[in-house]
Amino acid sequence: MMNRKRMNIKILIFPLVLFALLFNAAAQNYTPENQLNINTASLRQIRQLPVSETVAQKIYERIIYRGYLKSVYDLLKIEGIDQPLFEKIKPLVRIEPFAPLNTIQEKIEQIYFRLDRWSSGEGINDAFIDLWVEKALDPMNVNTARYDQLVNLQNVSPVDAAAILSYRNEVHWIRDQRDLRRTPGLSNYAYRTARYFLDYKDTTPSGLHGSILTRMDNTPFMADAGAQTTEAGLSAVSGRYVSGYNMMPNMYSKMRLSYGKDIKAGISYTRNLNEPVQYVNESGIKIPDAKFYIGIENQQFGDFVLRKLFLGNYKVTFGQGVIMENTDFFTPRKSGYGFRKRFTGLSGDNSRTREYTLRGIAAEAGYKNFSALGFLSYDSRDAIINRYNYSNTTKAGFNQLIVLDQRFNYALDDSLRGANGLDLSWLNSVNEMTYGGHLQYDFLPGTFFGVSFYESLYDRPLDPNPYEIAGRDYNGVENWERRQVTTDSEIKQAYGGAVARAQSSLWSDAESYRRVYGFDFQSVIGNIVLQGEYGELQKNGSLFKMGDDPKAMVFSAYFQFPTLNVLALYRNYDVGFDNPYQRSFSNNRRYKGTIYEDYYYLQSALYGQLYENNPQPQAEEGFYLDAFYQMNRKFTTRFQYDNWVRKADGAKHYRLVGTLDYRPVFPLGIQLRQKWQTREDQNDLTSNLYYKNLEFRGRLRTRLSNYDNLDLMYTSSKLLVHPRPRVFGDFVLDGEALTANYVHNFNKNLKISGMLAYYKGFLWNFEDTQFAVMDSPRGALRYWLSFYMRLDHHLSFRMKYTGEHQKTVSNVLFEPWQSTLDQNPDKRFGAQWLRKITNLYYVEFNYNF
Amino acid sequence: MKLIKVLLVIIISSTAAFAQRADFNQMKMRYGDDILFTNARILGLGGAGIAGGNVFNAASLNPALLSAANGAVQFQTGLNLTKISEDRSFPYYDSFVGFNDYGSYTYNEHWYNRFQGTVIMRSSLSFLKEFTFAASVLPFKDMQYDYKEEVRDPVNKSDVLLGYNSVVQNGFLYQTAVAAAYEITDNLSAGLQIGFLSGEIDSVMNIDPKYTNVMDAASREYLIKELDGLPLTTSVGVSYTYNEHLALGFSARLPYAVAFKNRHSSSSDTTTFSQTLTYPARLGAGLEYRFVNALAAKISFDIVYDFWSAFDDSKNPTRFQDTYTIHTGVEHLFFDKVPLRVGFLFGTLRESKDFSRTVLTIGSGFEVQNVKVDIAGGISSMQYYQDDYFADSIYGLGDRSDSDRVDVTQYFLRIDFNYTWGGVK
Fold first, then answer.
1. Given CB atoms, is A248 within the 8 Å cutoff of chain B?
2. What is the reported pLDDT for B324?
3. How many Å lie between the alpha carbon of A277 and the closest alpha carbon of chain B?
């Protein structure tokens, strides 16, 4: 009994003692011997210091909201702490080294400015941007990297990639950045960029990481496409066949995920200005039509390596893009070097491409010196459908594949094909099965020979009848008969008709097909790269005989020296080489100068997108020379010369651009750039298409402290055009612009930039992360202000406002014949004012983890 | 008769077809637009603030935020300025009847201003110490519209001045409200606000011919809408602080009815009729996250859902669609005293889910002892298509078959003065 009582007392006493001890500990006074580690202290602990409640709160908030104190003297910057109080606190607290950031956070801090810059390339160059962001945050081991992995890194040319592999073979192991820097033949540009993507040992896979981006803006389409949008707007209000007209912004969201180093996944969604949402399933749950992929990489099975395997949406590029590169976007002079780099091989597709998407399965594998890439895709395409059934079939043929700015169900002003007419929607109107492959043998790193092939099957006959695109004039006469010009031979020779009819054992629905094949090669010899690709579109010729079908080829030689790069490139594309996946080097779009660019001759103004949005190169033959030379630390020059013949009408063109960069002292740069471009004025076939374009740009760049900079630019241009017969006489468009651009970094977390510009005529410019093309015949004041905020290591927010005020004009009046006025009492032929004020916004969240 | 029809189209009758065109101006005159930015801080953050940030957000966003009051008495007053410019244009054609461009024929630009005030009290009495009370007078619904156009002869090339047309509506509904919040725990508060609406709306439409041959077209009509009874609004809210970095907020505004006695008069007759508008419920959720950042970055993010499909107009059946609005704002703090705020609002419109609205905002301020001054500005623009507001046939011309393009730009400006009496909580 006694023992039990003692036990009870002990049970009571124990917690009291424990409480007393804890209380004592909490209430202890900090001393020089027992200092408080203030960066990790709780509010309760800070209250134990000889400070008021308010000051304790402020110290605590300073640490948890603004980050750790770097020095005890940072306490002096806190409101309420004066010198005497500071001296009282100072001996009682200590600053210990910070808790280290995790690897991803550290990497983000090292390359945050690159992440900022790369975001401008999002959407079009996604394969690159995704790879660069991923490898910058989770670098690959340079000692095990393959050639195809290295050559896709930013600023790394085939010479650089081969140089790294050659040096690695020599030294067996590249130990660190200094070793990398010593690589013979590796250019300074490549080294300075590649070091961010490369590691020197195998690192532990970093678990799940990736990025999420969401962006919203109301930037209209560029230049001429903007004119189409106006037309579309007009159609939207006057047409009866509109599926809906709204005011929704451009929207682009994507998520990229990696698990470890080798498992990838992505999902993306794009919606363009004012277009309705397209859903996957209209009847059940409505899911917006998004793109997605999942993939696995670098699986080694003895000598066999499964380099990549993707399911879902993917991108494929062979060689120089003569045969296959599935993107909706045209990039002029895509040489594969420098800023015109081409992602080769296979990748998941998170881009804004919507027409030339590939969806299905694709794999890339290697066995010793052999590598192969194969894919199978089934996806729908937007296409203009003919209004009649193709001969002896029950199906209407499709006329042309089309890349749409705005994916409305119908062309707004084509009532015949509208919902109340023949109901021929152009959205997802053709299903396409495409399969193909590329087989390559590598003789040495960077030296290889490959063959490529693809075949597309369509579930409608391919029937590119131009009468179905061009309309009739007011007298009922076909515009195609009356208006076609020599350059329209490109339209006449569009692939299709009887030669494209097909049956396939792979797909019973197949009604037509297209088949393209060819070969490519590359050789790196020291600091020289020789490249080439040849392709044929099979028409009536033999698969194994070269030259009996429409063909296309690109050959180039690239010389790389420490201060000099020279690229020489030759291309030759036949008019009949109608390959919708061709994205090789080109200086004009396919239909430039044809009836497709004259909207008023077409059945719908929106069919002009066949010209405006076509990413396919035109038939041309030409020679291109690009040289970059750094004379010394102060002078850098660049020279681009292109001379080509348009195949359709034999018209010769040249384009010459010279750039001189002078940097007398580091913070000051002066750049002068002059462009001369012309089409020959004496051409027997299409003499009325003569034009000449001169453009001068002068820039003064001052780099201030803290990466701030001020950039002033003056441009002057002149465009002389001998227009089509519809307008008589030459006209000259003068352009002039003056811009001032300022970037201010408050710190690594907040950047404010802005621009003020006056321009008249045509102007292109980089505006923060956007590439803007402007045109104001009357002159305009344009300005923008952008905030870029890195809220923490992972999350950034960008918001930009752009305003533009075009010069106002009053009393515009046409004077048609009185009969025209009488026939159109509901129309107006003049306006009191032309006034245009534009307000644009751009908002973006980016989360890297 | 024709002119009365015009007026009816503009002010009274229903419009249900939004497939291609919109009548935003008419909808605003009939049903009003909610005032979203009731103080400068809210404006600077794109309308966000349900989860916290400022005790004065309580009056319009979430009454539970009153619990964050840090003085015995806090007072805010401010100036609420809005500028609206409207540019109307029509398509004009070249000599071949080819579409050329849109040409503007009238441009209206007006400033509107309103005052507001809120007072918040926190009692030191022990039995009331968990409670905070507030009273506020805030602009609630904007029904103003001011449109004038000059008509000249576009057909006969004589450029004769035919007349002036105008529609002017003055009208603002204010909300006078009392609110209370109860601090359930250190982290959790709940609030309730009850308010009543006041105001009067009057419209006048005027057709004022200036050319001899069309003087018969003259017309002037009035519509006066007086509140019938005392419309009550009720809002509830919850605020929860998860930790030092994250705070969450939820709010709801219950449906409310506004009854009007309308009197319409023209030169020939006067009619009266009643009308009850039942406005729908609103739900909102928000978060506020404070990052570890050298400039003390804080993000506010709200999503608000309005059940506009439940809206009812007793006089004219009107079909609206539910809307959602996203408010996002980021705040940095310089020198512990000077904020820099940028914000963004994106939302669908009740007329159609395919229409949207965007506002970009920026704000700042400063603090001197107990006085805090906040200032913010914002811009929003939209473009839509609408039939000619006053048909040309009024003046004997042929009506245009093309719709007008309407470009509307709104500029918002808010300046607030905040004063705090009493000690820190």
1. yes
2. 96
3. 9
